[in-house]
């Protein structure tokens, strides 16, 4: 019978005095009391597709508005995935494509397969904590907030704002 073959396994009782092992995530060495020491002027800002589109709608100059927000020199960075996403949008977004091809933008090559820009940005920010992520996408913001020490730049009320950008003292500025 199948019932006879499958005997109930006896569970071992846990010893309350035994040392319990648990896995604690290792934080990168650049984070010191939640303050990211790799962030400093000139700021490298990873730009998302919708951030460029919303900047055009709000009639904001991308580089100048970033400098006005951070009071420092900013280098906007754009990945190959974001460029591919803008090119896929077609003729309606030709102004965004022209802005993305600006020589002031630093071009970052991607070594992975696929062209999904959100995964690319999250992966790059997880590996290198030296970037500020500029996005308006709620889902991408939610994913980046889970990564400690990564500030987010967004647009509200026709101006750029920064979220979780630490001051010189290490306290978060909102």
Automatic annotation (TrEMBL):
Its main location: nucleus. Keywords: Nucleus, Ribosome biogenesis, rRNA processing. CDD domains: PIN_Fcf1-like (cd09864). It comes from the Eukaryota. Residues 43-142 form the PIN domain. One of its GO terms (biological process) is ribosomal small subunit biogenesis. The keyword Lipid biosynthesis does not apply. GO terms for cellular component: small-subunit processome. Gene3D superfamilies: 5'-nuclease (3.40.50.1010). Residues 1-21 are annotated as: Disordered. It is found in: Nucleus, Nucleolus. InterPro entries: Fcf1/UTP23, Fcf1_PIN, PIN-like_dom_sf, PIN_dom. The keyword Membrane does not apply. PANTHER family: RRNA-PROCESSING PROTEIN UTP23 HOMOLOG (PTHR12416). Part of the small subunit (SSU) processome, composed of more than 70 proteins and the RNA chaperone small nucleolar RNA (snoRNA) U3. Belongs to the UTP23/FCF1 family. FCF1 subfamily. Part of the small subunit (SSU) processome, first precursor of the small eukaryotic ribosomal subunit. During the assembly of the SSU processome in the nucleolus, many ribosome biogenesis factors, an RNA chaperone and ribosomal proteins associate with the nascent pre-rRNA and work in concert to generate RNA folding, modifications, rearrangements and cleavage as well as targeted degradation of pre-ribosomal RNA by the RNA exosome. This is rRNA-processing protein FCF1 homolog. It comes from Casuarius casuarius (Southern cassowary).
């Amino acid at each position: 019978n199948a019932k006879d073959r499958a005997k109930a396994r006896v569970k071992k009782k846990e010893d309350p005095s035994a040392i319990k092992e648990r896995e604690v995530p290792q934080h990168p060495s650049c984070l010191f009391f939640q303050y990211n020491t790799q962030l400093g002027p000139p700021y490298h800002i990873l730009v998302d597709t919708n951030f460029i589109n919303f900047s055009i709608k709000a009639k904001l100059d991308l580089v100048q508005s970033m400098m006005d927000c951070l009071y420092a020199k900013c280098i906007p960075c754009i990945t190959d995935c974001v460029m591919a996403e803008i090119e896929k949008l077609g003729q309606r977004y030709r102004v965004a494509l022209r802005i993305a091809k600006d020589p002031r933008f630093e071009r970052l090559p991607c070594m992975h397969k696929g062209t999904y820009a959100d995964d690319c940005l999250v992966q790059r920010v997880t590996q290198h904590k030296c970037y500020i992520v500029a996005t308006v996408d709620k889902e991408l913001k939610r994913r980046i907030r889970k990564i400690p020490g990564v500030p987010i730049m967004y647009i509200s009320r026709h101006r750029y704002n920064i979220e979780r950008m630490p001051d010189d003292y290490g306290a978060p500025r909102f």
